[in-house]
Every structure is written in structure tokens, then in C-alpha cells.
Amino acid sequence: MKHVTHIGAPSRALLFTEPTRAAVEFGTFLAAAPLLRRAPHGDGHTVLVLPGFLADDRSTLVLRNTLGSLGYHSYGWGLGRNVGPTAEILEGMRSLLTRLADSSGAPVSVVGWSLGGMFARGLGHELPQHIRQIVTLGSPFRSDAPIGSHAARSFERFAHLHVPHSELPDIDADRGQLDVPVTAVYTKGDGVVAWQTCLQDDGVRRENVEVPGSHCGLGHNPAALWVVADRLAQPTGEWAPFAPPPVARHLYPTPAPASLAA
Fold this sequence. Notes:
Rossmann fold; alpha/beta; 6-stranded parallel beta sheet; single chain; 6 strands
């Protein structure tokens, strides 16, 4: 089992420009909204969206509204601010996922941003029977500690609220193949976490997709939203790697090999 322990946090230049770049991406989202309505439509199944560290459901509103406009039943997690793996948050996610799957009568897709994506992977190990697929957005799951992240110090401030490390759900990329399809979206312009920590190993029904942009803008980044829509549109039981739309192929570079994160 490999762990990423030698990759440093992104440059200060990337970190300090995160707010500005995320704002520009929101402007791009507004301009691209008509095009996003032409994104692949699926069967309208249920989608659970998990926010990043220190964020709440307000941060995923654009993402959830976009999915709603494509016909999906999208839900926030309803657990307030994401302060890390507290017992209340971990149990709340498990209960919510189970309720959504039971009420819809079918497995639920889970989209997680940053730490939310790490939680999504944990749910994929614990409750695979309730999950149709997972999409992570800038989630540094290749390490079981917040290494290579400017959020590490803030994360530690809440450590006294977290469950013991031995009780955390399995999120590591190398601890066995998840039983559900997983798409990891990342950006080399990430100013919060090292992009290399957001890559998963090659495997059956899993892939890494690079998009241009910032970490804080991934929830309204048009290129990322198109990937999410495309992945959710796949019929139940079918899976194929992401293929960029021809007119926007330049937005999706050839994915970096996961070995770069080793």
C-alpha cells in the first residue's frame, strides 16, 4: 500500500489567487449555462452531494441546481458545516444515504467536493449496495492525513471533535478496488490541495479526469459540471471512460498517470 507523504502543498501564488479564479469561473458558469443544459441527460435518479471542508450545503447549490435542471433528484447532506469526521457527520451520512436509497428504490450516485469526496469513498466501502457511482471533485484521498494541503492546520483545529483514526471509514486509493464506478476530477491549478493526491490508481470502472480551474471553483466550473453530468447519464450497469465533447476537447488534457502520486 502506497501513501503520499512527500508532496508539498500547492504554491502560495495558487492559494492566494483561489478566490479570484473561483469568481472568474462563476462568471464562466453563467455564460456557459445555456450550453450546460445540453449536457447528457440521464434517468433522473437520486444524487447526494457532499460539501468540502468547512463548507455546507450552500456551497453546492449551483451544482445541485444544475443537476436538478438535468432532471436529477439532487440532495445536500443537511448536516451543517463540514468540520471533518465527527461521529454525528459520519452517522448522519450513512443514515441519509440509506434513506435516499430506500425511498428511491435504487442505488444513489454520490458527488463529493474535496473532503466530501473522501467521505463519499468511505461510504463506497461501507455501503456499496446503496451507491450507483461516485464522482470526487478535488479530493485528496491518496493520503490518510491532510498532507499536501493548505487546509491541514485548520483541519487539526477540529481534531478534538473527530472520531479516532482507527474508526474512520476506508478512503485510501490503494486499499482495494471499490465495488462501484469512481471518477476523480482534479485540476493542476488547485491552490488548496496537491493535485497529485487527488488521483486514483488505474482499475476497473475508475478514472481520473483533469479540468482547468481552481479548487474553490470546482462546484461551478463548467468543465467539471459537464463531467459530472456525463458520468451520471450512464445507464445503470453500464460504464465507459469519459469522452470530452468534440467542441470542448481542449478543456480536458490527457489524464496524468496515477503513478505521479506515488
